[in-house]
Every structure is written in structure tokens, then in C-alpha cells.
Amino acid sequence: MELHPESVVVAAGRPHEPGGPLNTPIVLTAPYRHLPDDNPYARHDVSPTVRAFEDALGALEGGTALAFASGIAAAAAVIDRLPAGAAVVVPDAAYSGTVSAFAAQQELGRLTVRPVDSADTAAVLAALDGAALLWLESVSNPLMAVPDLPALIAAAHAAGAQVAVDSTFSTPLVLRPLDLGADVVMHSATKYLAGHSDVIMGALVVRDQALAAELHDGRTRTGAVPGMLEAYLATRGIRTLALRMERAQANAATLAARLAEHPHVARVRYPGLATDPGHAVAARDHRGFGAMIGIETAGTAEQAERVCECVRLITHATSLGGVESLIERRARHDIDAAFGTPPTLLRFSVGIEHVEDLWADLSQALDAAFSG
Ligand SMILES: Cc1ncc(COP(=O)(O)O)c(C=O)c1O
């Protein structure tokens, strides 16, 4: 029976033994007892708690999932398998940890990084010649650019490059990059998948079984496996992913429209707005517009920072994708400032609170930041 994603999040990755538990328990063991021809150990792939998460995410993305200790550990596993001297095409503005992971490889002389504006399809195409990998974010962090995945993936493959898509902002409910031809999907499971801001974890999903085996070997070699508690919590988070995304996206759509009219807001970056540069591509390829909003406030960086200090229900903190709304001025991070993040850009992760409470909080914080 073909299930809808709303049912897959609930049903996938469960044990089915008669008389057994409904949920895969937290199995706390490092070694398992020897088998005649195997030496099971939890740094390999034997943990049932981790496998439950992988089964659920794999079913959602339509591939084979591998869990990692963090989103960045998952990204590092993709970077790690590139041959020395390879060229990689990478967004010039992306999650700061990813940007610095690629930059560190370039500094070591291992990779040549070709930075591109991922929303500029012609610029990406021009950079692909001889590249081994094209790295993209489904919606870029924090500038909210939406790359044209079908066009870029086709061109990358024609040029002999593999394509990895960090789909953290989108979740498999909004986008399935493997269906569009991507070779690797990456997630910071810390965010929407786990969903409660209490876990650090990551994942890769692939269709090619040789690639899955290679990434699996790499994970065993580097030891970047998640802990059992984290894997359990992330699986439990997935159970409510559809409901959480539904509410968070509805909240985001309402707030983005209101913010766009607000006198203290200069620009709203949200692909759900018909005026947003990413709207056409997102409307074509995504099933929803996500729950991240970039708010460029009208005045100075100090006033933008004041907005974050004045929120009461919304929390002034980094990260995203939890049930609770979070906001921060991204240019406070040196890497984001260096790649040109506008000094007044607030990255707003919209949670599942009541939309009118969120609006009241944002409105009072904007008024307080701009008064006097
Ligand atoms: C888009 C994106 N990718 C990757 C990461 C890294 O994930 P983690 O913090 O789980 O290592 C983050 C974290 O903020 C992110 O926002």
C-alpha cells in the first residue's frame, strides 16, 4: 500500500515482532555478542535504535539513510570521499559551518572551492566544468535563495559532477531531492526532523547502493555515529513532523505577508511571497514554502539586534526547526558577515505557537526596537 507522507512519518521505522514493542527502544550497548562470522559493534550499523531513525527517514526521502553524529558530520562524510585535488562548486552564501568546512579543505590544499550564487543558474553552470561535486542548499541559509534543482542537477551530471543537497530547511515533506535526480540528500536532523531543539544529529540519504556502502564505511572509519538517545528522540520527532510542518508553514505564510507590510521592515525573504525571487521555482518544485523567514529590518544593525533582544515569546537563539520560534541576526556570526549577509537580516525560524501570539510579539519587539 502506497502511503502518504503524513502516514509514513507515523508508520515507518517501527518494529513488527508479534508481542514486541511499538517503538524501537533505546538499546544501550557498544558491543554485541559475537556471531560465528561477525563482530557486531555499535560504531558499525547494528544499533536498532539508529536503524529505526534511518528506516523512517529513508522511507520519507525515498532512499537509503545513514545517521550521523551531527549535520556537519554528515556533510564532512560527503567531503571526505572527494579525491585530493577535486574541484567543488559551493554556494557563496550558505550555512556557515558548511562554508567553513569547504574553506578548511581548500586551505589544506585538498580541494579547490568554486563559490557561486546558487540562485544564478547560468553562473553555476559556468562553474561546473571538471568539478567533482556540486553542493546546494534546497533553500539557502540565511539568504533564502531557491536554486533551480532540476536544471542544476541535469547540468552537473552532464559535466560529470555529483550533486549533494542540504535539504534541512525543506524536510522530506516539502522536497525530495532524490526524486529530482540528486545523488545525496543531507539533513541536520538537529532541526525539523528531531524538531524539539534537544538533539544534535545528522543524516545522508542516497539511492546508489555502492555510494551508500562507501559512506557507511566512511562513517565506521571516522566514528561519526549518533548516540542512542539522540537517535531515539529524532525518530520520535519524525512522528509529528507532518503536523509540525503544517502548523509552522501556515504560521510562516501569515507572518511573512504581514511583515512585508510593516513600516519597520525593509524586505522579507520568503519563497511563499509572490514577489520573492525564489517563488516561481519553489512553487514549481516544492510542496509548501517552509517555515523559515528572512526579515531585513529598516534601520541599523543595532536596531535589528534590538528586535531580537525585545522578543518575549520568541527566543533569541541560534538554530531552527524546533517547535519554538527562534530569531537571530545572522551577521553577528563572522562567517555570515564575511559572505555578505545584510547586517539587518534576522533569520526567523517560525514555530508552532499560536500565530496571533507570534505576531503580537514580533510587533511589540519591532515597535520597541524603533522607539526613541
Ligand atoms: C542548513 C544547515 N545545514 C547544516 C547545519 C549543521 O547541522 P548540525 O548543527 O546538526 O551539525 C545547519 C545548522 O544550523 C544548518 O542550518
Structural notes for this entry:
With 372 residues, this protein is an alpha/beta fold. It has helices spanning 5-11, 48-61, 71-80, 96-107, 121-127, 149-158, 171-174, 209-222, 228-239, 241-260, 279-285, 301-310, 334-338, 355-370; strands at 64-68, 86-91, 111-116, 133-137, 162-166, 184-188, 202-206, 265-269, 292-297, 315-316, 326-329, 345-349. The protein folds into 2 domains: 5-239, Type I PLP-dependent aspartate aminotransferase-like (Major domain) (Aspartate Aminotransferase, domain 2), CATH 3.40.640.10; 242-370, Aspartate Aminotransferase, domain 1 (Alpha-Beta Complex). It has a 7-stranded mixed sheet, with helices on both faces. A 5-stranded mixed sheet has the order 8-9-12-11-10, covered by helices on one side. The N and C termini lie far apart (62 Å). The mean pLDDT is 97. Bound molecules: pyridoxal-5'-phosphate (PLP).
Q: Note the main sheet.
A: 7 strands, mixed
Q: How many structural domains are formed by the residues?
A: 2
Structural class: alpha/beta
- Tell me the total number of β-strands: 12
CATH fold-level name of the largest domain: Aspartate Aminotransferase, domain 2
Q: Note the run of SSEs as H and E.
A: HHEHEHEHEHEHEEHHHEHEHEEHEH
Uncertain stretches of 5 or more adjacent residues? none
What's the helical proportion of residues? 25-40%
Rough outline: globular
Distance between the termini: 62 Å
* Ligands, ions, cofactors: pyridoxal-5'-phosphate
